[in-house]
Design goal:
Helix 8 runs parallel beside helix 9 and helix 11 crosses helix 16. This protein has 740 residues and is α/β, with parallel strands linked by helices. Helix content is 41%, strand content 15%. It is elongated, with a radius of gyration of 35 Å.
Length: 740
């Protein structure tokens, strides 16, 4: 096939094969019977070499056409074990694919023409096999159905993998290469979009695996909970020798989870009120109540801090509900420092109180609080914390309860049941062996954290906890940006910026006002956000403001888009691409009569092909909607469009898992079923590893079997005591190709 033609025309019969056959025949004749061509033997050998050379050139052209047409129906298998995933300290591997250019748009345009459809349809034998499956099943011949559906290259009628979509989108290029994103571009943040069960979780596993093995700080926030993703993180942490800094925080399993205090660490005490009140609505009339909530949380946080106590959600709720007790406790602590005789005077005032003489705004308050207020009216004491508490208790109690009413539901979400043990840990309880962590500790120790928020069970609590974590991360990012990671530690301050890879699955369920500064300014502290969501409408609905949603989207410089169902979401990618010129062929046929009777010509006719150009989008929204599972378009490095596909997992050696991790994983599999096993249509059977029998379900380890060390910063994980198969996703590698 000659090159340089305006129309490439690869969807056609490989006519070059005929030339190859003719060249082979001529070469044989030139060698065996040169006399038939009136050639001397020495000349015959030279002619045979020339025929072979020309035949090889034409065979390469024929193979190009045949391979192109074959890939249009079924792409080559692309499977990879996690050990085989390439890890670089300069680039992030995304999969195999190619840079999408003008010729790919032209090939796709050609494949969409009606005359190309016969080359894309399965053969008659394939269609006949699919038509026979239903009758054979009715005739109780499942063994024959299984034979027809046997997924093996030697089966000429094996079914296509259940990935759907349009296979031509990736088949327009047969020369695949590894696609990398430079690590310097990750700080510009990455947005991954795709509808349910099209490969977002598989892509997350590929990216998280590289982050862990590269040695980066890796934080995964998973609202629903994916057991395979959690286990993948643990396995990779152990392989990388980082199992001692791996943490699992899961709201669904508080008895096995690590503990976390979102307001326990701060550089300024006012951050506590900001993190908490930031989750309240600030629209319309709610703005005033939000400001009141901030003020009262700040008052109680300052008081607890002055008392030498670490703030917690549980303590804040108790103080807001009963601020009288905090007032009394702080007065007992602070007043003796100003007046040794203060407390006896307060007791005397309390004993002399007459309910009829208590000011109206103080009615309903504890008598001792009333006595403290009366004492302070007579004795001026310059204590700003005490002044704040006085301003709070001087409000009418009924009015006070109303203005903090918007704060109480949020605090109750964060302090109900066993959730309170996780979010308000008791630092003094040495019998509780569950570790306690905070983000600064994780960052300093290059930690790995999996956060499961159990959103399917309790969405409201999951949302509140997720927002608290984001608000805490924003605060930590600000501290790192100002002072560096090593501030406050002994020794030389290196203050090197460490990449913090934050993976947020279904992040539209967690996003709030606190997320905007995280992606706006978090890059200065090394935070690199990879957010996974389904549609743009999800983000807008969560924020309740189109301008804010555009503000969030505008901070993602890299876009990886799998199959989506919303056209406006697909247009987020396609609107950023320029239009290109493609060639189209037009058949021209003309005829005309001759009115001159003096000539022998009665009419004339002509026919031919006319090649013209037309301007079309590089890709359209319909192409994004038609992507097969496991494939994506990626807009990287300032608008460079790539077409990628992700590898299927392969089975690998089983990994030792500690009892608590195994128990959480098994419960998550039973309850959630959210894993993206899009490469198979049936549940996988148990898999044997290296010829061994399938691993049994793990048994939860007892405390005696898996002793936990008492928390000290980020303590060591318990000694592994049970075994599970390495990764459930790996069990499905035999279900065939990742693309249709």
């Amino acid at each position: 096939m000659a090159t340089g033609h305006p129309i490439e025309s690869l969807l056609r019969p490989a006519v070059e094969v005929y030339t190859v056959a003719a060249c082979a025949a001529c070469a044989v004749v030139c060698v065996t019977a040169p006399w038939m061509l009136a050639l001397a033997p020495s000349i015959g050998y030279g002619m045979a070499g020339a025929f072979i050379a020309f035949g090889l050139m034409r065979s390469n052209q024929a193979w190009r056409v045949l391979r192109y047409r074959r890939n249009m129906k079924r792409l080559p298998r692309f499977a990879m074990a996690s050990r085989q995933i390439p890890v670089s300290h300069r680039s992030l591997w995304l999969g195999k694919g190619f840079r999408w250019q003008v010729q790919h748009t032209r090939r796709l345009y050609e494949a969409q023409q009606p005359e190309a459809q016969p080359s894309l349809r399965p053969g008659r034998l394939f269609r006949a096999a699919r038509a026979l499956e239903a009758p054979l099943e009715r005739w109780h011949m499942p063994w024959l159905v299984d034979a027809l559906r046997w997924d093996s290259p030697i089966n000429p009628v094996r079914p296509r993998p259940p990935v759907g979509g349009d296979p031509t989108l990736h088949a327009v290029e047969w020369r695949e290469t590894d696609i990398y994103l430079p690590l310097a571009e990750r700080v510009a943040h990455t947005l991954v979009q795709g509808t349910t069960r099209v490969g977002k979780t598989r892509l997350a596993e590929v990216l998280v695996t590289q982050d862990i093995r590269r040695g980066d700080i890796t934080i995964v926030i998973d609202p629903k909970g994916d057991a395979d993703l959690m286990m993948r993180m643990y396995v990779e942490a152990e392989r990388a020798g980082r199992g001692d800094v791996f943490r699992v925080f899961h709201l669904g399993y508080p008895e096995l989870s690590a503990r976390y205090n979102a307001v326990g660490r701060f550089s300024r005490i006012s951050e506590v009120a900001t993190r908490l009140s930031g989750q309240l609505s600030g629209e319309g009339n709610s703005a005033a109540f939000r400001e009141f909530a901030w003020r009262f949380v700040n008052i109680v946080a300052r008081a607890r801090h002055a008392l030498g106590q670490r703030p917690s959600y549980e303590q804040i709720l108790a103080d807001v509900v009963s601020i009288d007790e905090l007032m009394i406790e702080y007065a007992q602590h602070a007043l003796p420092g100003h007046d040794d005789n203060a407390w006896p005077q307060i007791i005397k005032i309390e004993n002399a109180l007459n309910p009829k003489t208590i000011p109206r705004n103080m009615q309903g308050r504890d008598n001792r609080v009333v006595a403290i207020e009366m004492y302070l009216q007579r004795n001026k004491i310059g204590d700003p914390v005490l002044a704040g508490l006085r301003s709070a208790v001087r409000y009418d109690k009924t009015y006070f309860d109303k203005i903090v009413a918007s704060l109480l539901p949020l605090l109750e979400k964060l302090t109900t049941g066993q959730t309170a043990e996780l979010l308000s840990p008791d630092y003094q309880n040495i019998d509780d062996e569950r570790p306690i962590f905070d983000w600064m500790q994780v960052i300093r120790q290059q930690g790995i954290v999996y956060v499961g928020l159990d959103a399917l069970s309790d969405f409201e609590v999951a949302q509140a906890v997720g927002n608290s974590m984001f608000a805490d991360l924003v605060s930590v990012a600000g501290e790192i940006y100002k002072r560096g990671v090593d501030d406050g530690l002994p020794g030389p301050k290196l203050n090197q910026k460490r990449p913090i890879n934050l993976h947020c699955d279904e992040f539209n369920e967690l996003i709030g006002d606190e997320f905007i500064p995280l992606i706006n300014k978090g890059g200065g502290a090394g935070i690199q956000v990879t957010a996974y969501t389904q549609t743009l409408s999800d983000i807008e609905a969560r924020l309740g403001n189109a301008a804010k949603s555009r503000q969030v989207i505008g901070n993602f410089n890299n876009i990886i888009m799998l199959r989506v169902r919303e056209e406006s979401t697909a247009e987020l990618l396609t609107r950023q691409l320029r239009k290109v010129m493609v060639h189209q062929r037009m058949l021209v046929s003309m005829s005309s009569d001759n009115s001159d009777v003096d000539t022998d010509t009665d009419f004339s006719s002509s026919g031919g092909d006319r090649v013209s150009t037309v301007q079309v989008p590089m890709i359209e929204a319909a192409d994004v909607v038609s992507l097969p599972k496991g494939q994506a378009f990626a807009l990287l490095e300032g608008g460079q469009l790539h077409k990628i596909r992700m590898p299927l997992p392969k089975p690998e050696d089983a990994a030792e898992m500690p009892g608590d991790i195994s128990e959480i994983a098994e419960h998550m599999r039973e309850r959630y079923h959210t894993s993206d096993h899009w490469w198979t249509s049936v549940a996988p059977p148990p898999v044997s590893i290296d010829g061994a029998p399938p691993a049994p379900a793990p048994v939860a380890a007892t405390q005696a079997e898996t002793p936990r060390p008492i928390n000290s910063g980020l303590p060591q994980l318990p000694t592994p005591s049970s075994t599970v198969s390495g990764w459930a996703g790996d069990d499905l590698h035999d279900s065939a190709v990742a693309d249709d």
